[in-house]
Each structure stands twice: as C-alpha cells, then as structure tokens.
Specification:
The protein contains 3 helices and 2 strands. By secondary structure, the chain is mostly helical. A two-stranded antiparallel sheet has the order 1-2. The longest helix is centred in the middle third of the chain and has 24 residues, at 40-63. It is elongated.
Amino acid sequence: MKPQRQLGGIPFRALVPNAITVLALCVGLTGARFAFAERWDLAVICIVVAAILDALDGRVARMLKAQTRFGAELDSLSDVIAFGV
C-alpha cells in the first residue's frame, strides 16, 4: 500500500473536497453581499452555485475516500453561511 502524503496533519487528498467547500463558502458570502446591495439576480445565482458546489464536495470526498471530521464541520459552516444567512 502506498503511503499517504500529508500536509499539516490533513491527508493531501482531503484538500480537494475542502477546497470545493471553501469555494462554496466564498460564493455564499458573495451572495449575501449582493443581497445587501439589493442585487437580487446575482444573489440568487450565487445561492444556486453554492448549492451545486455543496452537492459536489460531498461526492468528491466520498469518491476520494477523504471524509474527515474537519471537512464535515467546514461543510456545516458553509451551509449555514450560504443558505442560512
């Protein structure tokens, strides 16, 4: 079995789904910014993109066998920001 490369305690393969989750978080924050500026069309687009990225990150994590507790918590934070705020 090939040894797993790690970056600061997190397996390298776990960075891909976490990067997608952080991107969803950024898009959700951008959507909130557009909503405050009353740019409703762009806010809705951001929410839809965040939803697509949210669905994608879990699938990528399962495909790469990269599910981590940190990733689950980061996903929950992203969901609250993108869909709760």
